[in-house]
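User: Second chain of the day. Same drill as before.
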Amino acid sequence: MSSITLTSSDGVDISVERTTAERSVLIKNMLEDLGDSGEAIPIPNVNEAVLKKVIECDDDDNRRKTTDIDEWDQKFMQVDQEMLFEIILAANYLDIKALLDVGCKTVANMIKGKSPEEIRKTFNIQNDFTPEEEDQIRRENEWAEDR
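Assistant: Same format as last time:
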């Protein structure tokens, strides 16, 4: 199998199997446009650590349309929050739908069943609503509450 070189945003060259790199629609299109020039492909929006993690991702097209995440993907996504969000951004930029789905499912599972206060704590989000605004929002969305 042939390999190609990707250059991360921090200037690190990473050699990767062409078939692995082509999981990214963006890279696949770039390779089609460039032909076999042998030049490194710049990936300006993804740093070395995230790019290596994205390359490591298992390509399994048998993922279901649920929030269930298989064991391999769960282990793969056991990273700190910053890396998780960087992986999601990279998957979106590189157009790797399966990885984007797993990342988003991971975040969805992190907030499932939590109150707004618990979600804010999980993601270190500052509450910018006044108590009056919070009460109004709760009243307007009462229908969505689990009872």
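The mean pLDDT is 87.

User: Great, on to the next one.
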